[in-house]
Amino acid sequence: MCCLGLLAALPSPAASAAVPGISGRGTDESDLSVCERALSLGFGDLERYQSALPSYLRLFSAADAQSRWHTAAVECPQRFAEGTVRSALAFHAANTLADRTGIGGVVTASSASLDDDLTLHVDTSTAAGLSLAEDRAGFAFEILAARHGADATMYKLSDQRKSNAQILATVVAHESDPRQKVYAVDSLIANPDETVDPTNGLKAATSAVVEMNCALEELDAVSAGTGKQSDSASSSGSSSDSTADDASSSRTDAEAHDLAVISTLVSAHIATALDLGYPALETALLK
To answer: What is the rounded distance in angstroms from the CA atom of residue 53 to the CA atom of residue 40?
Structure first.
């Protein structure tokens, strides 16, 4: 409790200054929309957990940031990808700080597995894109498992991804199964241990690149489905017009549910990729 009290007392100038468009709405946080409040608090937490504060304080800020950026992903129409990515990065930072400090019970992990009874209201093309990304990753992990002497962890990842693909292929009515089932294997066979991510040139464990590419492919599917290319991840220097749009728009309950499910799934993929050795670089993930 003392730690939380100290954390709450810390000043956070970035919490309001980092979000252009909020400044004109007054200093009373009750005047902010859910989106604006999530952004304001999220940027403040981001500043603190990346600072030189004691590790235990940074841990609590990172844990808070994970939740607040998830809220931003769901509630801010222009910030889905950014909120999802920042939530995952905050989770990774919190996990690292929890291990360093030995403080448990603070970090909440997202699940990379979908429920069998999942209900979604997304359009067919979005569901198809999500299913295809999961199936592609499941196939890749199966190949990597075989290349690594029947690696049990990779087989488990393969089964999870393929199960997700099956659920997403049936949760929305499709004219045909969006899954291809079999994909190109040349790169996986040639580079089963380490490879270069073709999306940004970063070198990482092949399993990490497979998982991160799954996450990024799913973010693209959501962006394409909404028809908002500006929904791709952006830096904290976004325009005031974008923030104004975030403040004036609102989600229906069905949209909020769907985006919460998808954001949680994608964040879990990103976190897994980071655990597998993908570089935790904001500049690589926030386009």
So the answer is: 20
Q: Average pLDDT, stretch 12-29? A: 46
Distance CA 287, CA 279 (A): 15
pTM for the whole structure: 0.84
- Specify whether 161 is located in the same domain as 220: yes
Q: What is the pLDDT of residues 36-45, one digit of tens each?
A: 999 999 999 9
pLDDT tens-digit readout, 131-179? 999 999 999 999 999 999 999 999 999 999 999 999 999 998 888 899 9
1 within a domain of the structure (yes/no): no
Q: Do 146 and 83 share a structural domain?
A: no
The whole-angstrom separation of Cα 84 and Cα 259 is: 10
23 belongs to a structural domain: no
Tell me: the pLDDT tens digits for 102-128?
A: 999 999 888 999 999 999 999 999 999
Residues 96, 138 within the same domain: no
What pLDDT, on the 0 to 100 scale, is given for residue 174?
A: 83
Rounded to 5°, angle at Cα 37 from 244 and 5: 155
Do 114 and 211 lie in one domain? The reply is yes
Name the residue range of residue 179's domain. 110-230+252-286
Q: Is 120 in the same domain as 219?
A: yes
